[in-house]
Amino acid sequence: MQNLTPSLRARLGLPRGVKGVVINDLDPDSPAAQAGLQPGDVIESINRQPVNSVDDFNRLAASAKGRTLLRISREGRGLFVVISPGADDNQ
Known about the structure:
The protein is α+β, with helices and mostly antiparallel strands.
């Protein structure tokens, strides 16, 4: 994860209103990758709580249990993704 800086925003071609943290690298076997997240995606919120920094992301991700709702921005388009951690998911 990386904080979204103005230079990174310009490089990714993101609108000014997008805030969050950028995914740099992803374990292909992780729940996030299995849910379709990819490098370059910007995580804007976790369970409807805003993510404005890597510290916010770490705090919110650590407190998330079971299915977790992420709002992400991909190439300037917003979408929601649900991540199911697997062992904690009673599906």
